[in-house]
Amino acid sequence: MNFSGKYQLQSQENFEPFMKAIGLSEDLIQKGRDIKGISEIVHNGKHVKITLTYGSKVIHNEFTLGEECELETMNGEKVKAVVNMEGDNKMVTNFKGMKSVTELNGDTITNTMTLGDIVYKRVSKRI
């Protein structure tokens, strides 16, 4: 399955507790809480390029599935990780005790990030 497309955030669960857990400041959490972020994905074979735009904050990540890469996290930190496909509709990675699963079902992308007992879920629709 190809993830390519532009998606806008529709809903999210546990935003504030998750952002606190990864070290985002209270000010940034308050500013980011109601932003309907845009994710743009270009998926070509094993090569994936993702641009996340949250207001004035833009995160660019580019990687080859199954190979080590450097990813920028939501708090601006750069981490080494390997992103793998599970089945034909899930991209999964682990870094710094966190697991991220991005699942595509039709025109809906669900990203679930787990850190300890905090599960942050974002649901975005193709636009």
From TrEMBL:
Principal subcellular localization: cytoplasm
Pfam families tied to this protein: Lipocalin_7
Gene3D superfamilies: 2.40.128.20
Gene Ontology BP, a term: fatty acid transport
SUPFAM superfamilies: Lipocalins (SSF50814)
InterPro entries documented for this protein: Calycin, Fatty_acid-bd, ILBP
Residue ranges constituting the Cytosolic fatty-acid binding proteins domain according to the UniProt record: 5-22
Gene Ontology MF annotations: fatty acid binding
Free-text domain note: Forms a beta-barrel structure that accommodates hydrophobic ligands in its interior.
The protein's name in its UniProt record: Fatty acid-binding protein, liver
